Amino acid sequence: MGGFGSGRHGGAVTAERTASYIIAISSLTSFLQKEECLTGTISFNKGRFPIVITVDSSKLWDAFVELIHLTRDEPEGDRIITDRIQLAWTAPTYGGRRWWFLCPRTGRRTTKLFLPNGGWHFWSRRAYGLGYACQREDRFGRLQRRAAMLNRQLGGEGWETWDVPPGKPKWMRWRTYQRKYERWERAVEKANEEFTVRAACLLKWI
């Protein structure tokens, strides 16, 4: 009863469906480059889920991130969890360092950690068995999702207005707006074409 993954059927559950809280290594890069120990607080759910985070890269051979937070398991919601995630780095051909989390559960390198509903710890997508939403979408769904993403970049509401022409945000340059608008327009055209094909096939079958 309860807990992560309960009552879910029909394929691998996705990170989107579990409303996962996500921490990306890219968001910590500027702190890791300082090669020191820093502590701060990050918050999810409009500040209602704070996490005390410590980033320690003072010893490159023993760098880690420590997270102190509550669980997202409702019956155990007042339990405080301390996660220490080891870090590793590789040297890209263009120089510098590329940082990775080492998932506490699988030991594999990953760039993102997830805390889904019902979860206790920040683990990798693989550790929680989470899929991508796009893995369960057909072609129309993928095109619609891309149009929604581009719509949001233009200041629209995303899914709610995915096929509605978004006006130019005041802060965006006209050249940038036109470039993004053309990409959005193409995505909408392809989605509409795919929908027309599907509708024609359905009517033919009926």
What does this structure look like?
The chain is of the alpha+beta class and 206 residues long. It has two domains: 21-128, no CATH class; 137-205, no CATH class. 27% of the residues lie in helices and 24% in strands. The chain is built from four helices and eight strands, in the order E-H-E-E-E-E-E-E-E-H-H-H. The chain has helices at 29-32, 125-128, 139-153, 174-205; strands at 21-24, 37-44, 49-56, 64-70, 80-90, 98-102, 109-110, 112-115. The strands form two sheets. A six-stranded antiparallel β-sheet has the order 2-3-4-5-6-7. A two-stranded antiparallel ribbon has the order 1-8. Helix 3 (139-153) packs antiparallel against helix 4 (174-205). The longest helix has 32 residues, at 174-205. The radius of gyration is 21 Å and the shape is globular. It starts with 20 loop residues before the first strand and ends with a helix. Mean pLDDT is 80; it is low at 1-16.
> What structural category arises from helix and sheet content?
alpha+beta
Alpha-carbon Rg, integer: 21 Å
Low-confidence stretches: 1-16
How large is the count of helical segments? 4
Q: What amount of the residues lies in strands?
A: 15-25%
Give the fraction of residues assigned to helices: 25-40%
